[in-house]
Structures are given as C-alpha cells and as structure tokens.
Amino acid sequence: IMKFLESAVEGCSTRYRFIVYSIVLFSLFTEQTARFISPLAMIGGMVKEDCNDPTDNGTFCWSESTKALVLGAYFYGYTAQFLITFVAKRLGFVPLYRFWLLMSAVLQFCYPLLAGISPFALIASQVIRGMMTGVCISHNFYFARTWTIENESKGFISSIGVTCYLGNGVGPLLAGLVGTKLGWHYSFYLNGGFFLLAFCLHCTLVKVSPQDSRFMGEEEKKMYAIQLESRKYHEEVARESKLDLKNILGRVYLWAFSIYIAMYNFIYYNLYNTAPFYLNKVLKADAELISYLSISLAFLAAVCTIIASKLFQTVDKYLPWIKCRMLFILLPMVFQVIFFVLLPFVSSTGAMVVITFTAITCSTLFSGSIITANYEIDPLNSAVVLSIFNSFGQVGGFLGPLFVKWITTIAPDTANYEEVYKTRWSYFFFMMAGFAALGFISILAAYFARPVEWIDRSIGKIDFNESVNKKNVNVPNKQTLETVKL
Fold it and tell me: What are phi and psi of 85, to 5 degrees?
C-alpha cells in the first residue's frame, strides 16, 4: 500500500500540499462518520426493540439506559480533549494523531466483538476513543499553522466545517444502507477500513515538517522556507504576549461560550443520536429512510457553511464588530427555540423534515460565528480557549441520550402506550427549547457583565482601560469603541 501511494503522488510535486490537505480532511471525515453510526445500527438490527418478542431479529437485548450510555460514551470521553491537547504539545501532535487513527481503526473493527462480550466493554472502548479524539482538534490547528501557505489557512479551516457536516450525515447513511443490506456489523468494519486507510496515507505522505516531504518540489519547499522565517518572528511575539492559564480561566466570556456550546451541542447531537428513534417509533420511518434524511441534512448544512462565510463578510461591512458577532451568535438559538416549540405539534414525517431542514439551514448559517469571535477576541490564545469551551461543550453530547431515555422510557404495558410515548417526546422537545434559551441568555449575560472583555481584545490587543482613560470616558459604548479603533 505504501509503495502504491508513493508512486501515485510522484507527479504532483508542484501542488503536493493539496494532497496533504485532502488526507487530513479525509481523516476528519472518517472520524465524523464514526460518531453517528450507532443510532442507525441499533434501529437496523443491532439491538432488540422488544426482548420478549420471539420474532424480533435484533442481536442484543439492552435496556434503555444501556442504549443511552452506549450512545453517549464517546462524547463523555471527548470532554477530556483539553487534557489530550496538552499531552500532544509535549509528545508531538503528529505521532499522537497517528496513534489515534490506528487505535480508532482497531476499535471500530472490534466494535461488534466488544458489544458481544459486554455493553460495558463497548462503553469503555468508546470513552477511550472519544478521549483520544481530542488530538484531532488540536492537530488540525497545528496543521493549519504548519502546512498552510499564506491565505490558504482560511480555506482549510472552512473546509473543516464542511467536512464535519458531511461526515455527520454519511455515518447514518453508512449504517442505514450498508447495515440494511449486509448487516449492522459491516457499518463498523467499513468505517474501520477508512481509519486504516487514513493512517496509511498519513504515515506515508504527511511529514512533521513540509520541507521533509520526499515528493514536494523545490519551488514549493522555497515557499515554506520563506514562510518559516516570517513565522519565527511572530511566534517570538506570541510567546512574549501570551497570557497565563489563570487569566484565561478568569474570563467571563469563556464560561458563557462553554454554556452556549454545551446547549448547542445538546441540540445538534440529539438530531443525529436520538431523533432517529423518534422518527422510527412515532413517525414509523425505517432505518433506510432515516439514513437518506440524515445525509440530506448533512449536505444542506455543508452548503450553508459555505454560504455563511460570504454572508458573514457582507453583514460585517454594515454593522459594528460587536453587533455583527452578537447577531450571528444569538440567532441560531432563536431558531432552535422556535423549532422545538413547533415540533410537538407535528404529526407527519414530511412536516417534521420541512421544519428540521429550515431550522438547520438557519442555524448553520450563523453557528460558526462563535469560533470567529473567539479568534478575534484573543488570537494568540484562541486554540487554548477553544479547547476549554469545546471540552465543556461535549457535555451536551453524552447527556443528550441520557435525558432522552430518562424522559421517554415507559413500561410496555402502559395504557395508551403510543399516546403517552409521544407526549413524553413533547416534554423533551420543550426542554430542548429551554436549553436553547439558556444558551441565548448566557451570551447576553456575559456581554452585559463584562463588555470590556469583548471590546478591547477584538481590536488588536489594545489596552482598553488605558485608551479610555486618555479620552476621559468611563463607560464602554459604541462611541468609545470607534474612538479606540481610531
């Protein structure tokens, strides 16, 4: 395999870096695909719907709480990404990233075997995999800084968002189609094969330093040499200007971002992790139909991500910095509140699809702005701040399935079972609307509590208090911001 890959790229020496970009994005795509295979696999025959029914062809008999733990285990481990980022900085991003790819391949191949041994063996493996996936986020930042040239980093970062959404949709599609035709086991085997291919590609073609690449042309290497000299200077400035961790943890906006992301992920992950069960039991959609809906949703979100960057740049020209960022951060939660308040009154799959697609379209157009705002508020520490609030954000990933099972689990012999079951889901949707409102309130509260944190850092690390004192202004407002900008 290694020799075949080497011969395949020999003629691409002038644009070699784009091959490397593609490999990293393929690895990310494979990871995002792996996250949401389990829900469709459970519906498609992995787990019995009724353990007392002799005609049920499911493989395992698990309780509702066990299913919830299996679905949320990966995200439970993923909350430790902050720790893995620090480990990667000490051991090196590339070696740890390769180890994660190989380990993920092995665990996906062993998924059916571990499920057969014990659901808790499966849960433990997913916690470990989720924890190690933290290196994927930090590696992508490291890669963007090391491998991208000039303005290509913006395109690469945008591609990460598109890749994530596509992977999230392909995972259910993989489980729905491959699982239905060949058996639920093969969804995991195929995904494990993707991880193994990504590992082989990365080991063969992606070097720690771009200039060490065997097949890169001399002209391209010279571009990296020039860029390396420029970055040395900026890294020295960054080391001198860097704030300590205690200062970072004391920022109000960091914790507001943490609450916001936790609420956003609670909603987003449930669309892929638990909504399939609602579609299956209440609206009678089968695994294949749900898989088509998932991939359609993912493609829509990917397209919206591309549109969003253009929309953001346009709005940014006409609104002040803080108003533009607040608008783009808060609007997703407004749409989510409306979406989940309407959902309990929907009685057909078609109507639910229309409402869901509308909500996802509107939310995706604005959802990436919190990452943009984080970078603009403090560019030098943005990766550390992101790893902290994104770690907290994954709490929504593992609590979501637990909340769903806790609210919607009822005894099979309950009178008017279907009506009661649907009512319980309505309670859950209203609770989701409440979580969206909480995310909205957290951002507003943080801004009104400490507006200086948003304003002074967003205009190039200027000492806001010193600038304000020179102008004899005590209260930060729009005029103050314009004065300091000047």
Answer: -60, -45
DSSP 243: P
The runs of H, that is alpha helices, within 54-133 are: 64-78, 81-91, 93-117, 119-132
Q: Which residues pair with 60 in a beta bridge?
A: 47
Q: Return the ∠ at Cα 43 (arms to 40 and 44), rounded to 5°.
A: 80
For residue 476, the one-letter residue type is: P
Angle between helices 16-35 and 93-117 (to 10 degrees): 30
pLDDT at 2: 54
Per the CB < 8 A criterion, the answer to whether 308 and 300 are in contact is no
Q: Let me know: does 400 contact 394? Beta carbons within 8 Å.
A: no
Alpha carbon distance 20, 413 (integer Å): 57
244: which residues sit within 8 A by CB, 6+ positions away?
none
Q: Which backbone phi and psi does 61 adopt, to 5 degrees?
A: -110, 100
Report pLDDT digits (tens) over 365-414: 555 667 767 767 776 666 677 777 777 777 777 777 777 777 877 777 77
For residues 56 and 61, give the distance between their C-alpha atoms in angstroms, rounded to a whole number.
Answer: 10
Q: Return the pLDDT at 189.
A: 92
Contact 380, 466 (CB under 8 A): no
* The pair of three-digit structure tokens given for residue 386, joined into one six-digit string: 């992101």
> What pLDDT, in 10s, does the model give residues 321-348?
777 878 888 888 888 888 888 888 877 6
pLDDT tens profile 31-51: 988 887 887 788 777 888 777
Burial class (CB in 10 A: 0-12, 13-18, 19+), 317: exposed
Distance separating alpha carbons of residues 42 and 187, to the nearest angstrom:
11
Phi, psi (degrees; rounded to nearest 5) at 207: -100, 160
The identity of residue 373, as a single letter, is: A
Q: Which residues pair with 7 in a beta bridge?
A: none
